[in-house]
Write a structure and sequence with these properties.
- There is one protein chain.
- The chain is mainly beta and 135 residues long.
- 7% of the residues lie in helices and 47% in strands.
- The chain has one helix and six strands, in the order ββββαββ.
- The protein has a five-stranded mixed β-barrel with strand order 1-3-4-6-5.
- It is globular.
């Protein structure tokens, strides 16, 4: 049986995107997003749950996100869930899940106002070859 790994989410950036480059010159952007879920349980008191997600994008898509997005901007992303593992400077093992973005769409933040750049959907490959990833 084959597996399936797809994430689709819309939320707001929690920090300004940080653009860097792999040793091979591939652009890579790191940013955080927050999504929320609101519901009212039987007791009638409205509740909200917020989820914070780290994201990474590569190539031209990374450059566009870095150029046109900033903290607070809404964004729709599609990608896959990845699991990163590394060893910290003190020798402890660390890990975290993140979304590796495959496509994104700018979302109008003020109902009717045009975004600063045209809405764009950018399709790219899964990112650079493993030897280009700087960790």
């Amino acid at each position: 049986m084959s597996s399936f790994n797809k994430v689709i989410m819309m939320g707001h950036l929690t920090r300004d995107p940080v653009l860097s480059y792999t040793p091979g010159g591939t652009p890579v952007v790191e940013f955080g997003m927050a999504t929320n879920h609101k519901w009212t349980p039987p007791d009638g008191e409205a509740r909200e749950e917020v989820c914070f997600i780290d994201c990474r994008a590569f190539g031209r898509m990374a450059e566009n996100i870095a150029k046109y997005c900033q903290k607070g901007r809404p964004l729709l992303v599609e990608g896959r869930l990845t699991f990163d593992q590394w060893e910290s400077k003190d020798g402890s093992k660390r890990s975290k899940h993140r979304v590796t973005v495959g496509t994104f769409t700018f979302v109008d933040s003020k109902g009717g106002e045009k975004p600063s750049a045209p809405s764009t959907r950018t399709d790219v490959a899964d990112g650079p070859a493993d030897d280009d990833i700087p960790f």
